[in-house]
Amino acid sequence: MLPLLLALAALSGAAFGADADARSGELKTLDGYFPFAPSESRAAWEKRADQVRMRVRVAEGIWPEPTRTPLNAVVHGRIEGDDYTVEKVSFESMPGLFVTGNLYRPRGEAALKRPAILCPHGHWDEARFQVLGNAEIAKEIASGGEFLPNGGRSMFQSLGVRLARMGCVAFVIDMLGYCDSKQLDFALVHKFAKQRPEMNTRENWGLFSPQAEAHAQSAMGLQTWNCVRALDFLTSLPDVDPARLGCTGASGGGTQTMLLGAIDPRLAVECPAVMVSTAMQGGCTCENASLLRVGTGNVEFAALFAPKPLGMTAANDWTKEMPTKGFPELQRHFAMMGAPEHVALWPFLQFGHNYNAVSRAKIYAWFNEHFALGLAPEKLVEREYTLLQKDQLTVWDAAHPAPAGGPDFERGLLRWWNDDAQKQITASTAQFRKIAEPAWEIILGRTLAEVGGVEFDLQSKVERDDYWDLTGLIRNTTYGENVPARFLHPKKWSGKTVIWLDERGKIGLFDKKTIRPEVRQLLDSGASVIGLDLFQQPENPTQTRRVSNPREAAAYTFGYNDALFSQRVHDILTTIEFIRKNDHAPRNISIVALDSTGPLAVAARALFGPALSRVAVAIHGFRFDGILDLRNPGFLPGAAKYGGLAGLLALGAHAEARVLTGDSSLATTTRAFASGAPLVTFADASSPTADSIRWVIAD
Known about the structure:
By secondary structure, the protein is α/β, with parallel strands linked by helices. Helix content is about 30%, strand content about 20%. It contains 21 helices and 20 strands. The strands form three sheets. Strands 1-2-3-5-4-6-7-8-9 form a nine-stranded mixed sheet, with helices on both faces. A hairpin with a 4-residue loop joins strand 11 (about 465-475) and strand 12 (about 480-490). Helix 2 crosses helix 14 (about 430-445), helix 14 packs across helix 19 and helix 19 (about 645-650) packs across helix 20 (about 665-675). The longest helix has 19 residues, at about 405-425.
């Protein structure tokens, strides 16, 4: 390794100039810039698309998918229009969680198989129950956004009626907290601002708590799952053609539309309105989930729909730059996918944020074209209809009472969600690996294949009696990350290299000014020892950074930025890549982490095991599901869901591991996940450190 260090020293870190680490800058927020770079080939895109889809599924808590329990759908209260009908619908997306809405159908031959269009709404006052007053509709008509004095008062009834008159089945559903969906409170789902101590518990937790985040449970995930089950409901109807399913929604409904299209292949046509943008990504807690937009964004989510038809609208809001930022890239992307005519943007910048008749007209034409309805343009124009009031639209009545909600319901729902996932994850060792491995790749955010370019900037080199003492920066030139490192390289090198992790950083190689005995033991054996200042070492803040958003929802920070835990694992990966790619490659690379850095080494072994030989760690009572503070440096979204430390140990099937722990359940669970975990041995937490060192260097 030494010849390489000296050779790379000549580079002097020219790619950076300064010692700044890109991660030390401002955290990314939902108001950042989220460009989309089209892939160079369809093959490259398909690989990327698989990764992004997996990110969506993991972030939204639907990997594995929740069990599709019986819908127990109830359709009642049929109202007859002149050429359409309106019905009231409720069904269970999860046991006890009801999805509610109105079903619009064309009158006529019931035996016909018709296209069906799901219509999730955004954050509009009254949503499905909306009926504008005289002053409001007059203002809309004066602006040119609406033109029907009566029908224009409700964008959602207008949408359902027009689609039914076009020969489609339209299902207008409620977001959580709106209209008839009150089991989870509106203020909780859409206005959550402050952590609730009574819901921040190791058992029976609630939404937005550290436990919910650690188990990938969010309001956004529930809404996406409601939409998935809404497609299940639609395809169960005898008059619906399952090959012609569409979705359209605006604002927050546009968010639901693009995310549903990203993960559910049944959708054939979609129109997310005033939401796809390289700018603001969605401000509501219901539009954010931890892990979701780390390294990606809404334009790329929309791109996942290619080559199927994607129509979008823009307005004088955060989407106003789409004609020049976002849409040209989507056009190139769809052309590369062989369907340049399948993407459209209709920018109506004369209007503010809207889902008005002008925008809806473009959406009707898009469905008419791509569902091959064959309707003349005049058949797509909205016309007056009998406007229904709230008491006519509501699903619940004396014969169909509203279900219970509230805190106990919330706790029970999340308990079922987690129990159902755990049953699937632990069904067998093969099932565990199939589910957990791709999930951990998303959670930790980088693999050996994604390490990027690495170089070394030597800053000092001192010859000691029997070793070289070198310090410098290991630079990840792809991500702009720097890892301060100190190398103690014996003059009689055995070919072994040990990464020494310490909560104090690279100074942990020493006791004051003397090499600590354990490190001396490694050097005397001929092993080269590397100490690192992982990101934010040696400062080691007790509270991690958060974005400036005052609302205490983890997704505003961790939906756009890697957790500190993951960032430190990235530094270990960068170091491993630097060591193993030099011209004088070591015989093996091992890690020793005998203090609070032990979980980091366990994570590194799980993902980077093929590059490692042995990993010796101590676990001092750490558990991902034991963290009850979102700003704890060990907090990691999704980590508890996929086995925690035991799951990580079970996944590291290449490198041997010696684990010092006082938690006997860790060994039991690890062995259950990995059929005995033959590469993992457990020792008592009080075992002498020297025993672990001897194990690491033994041949």
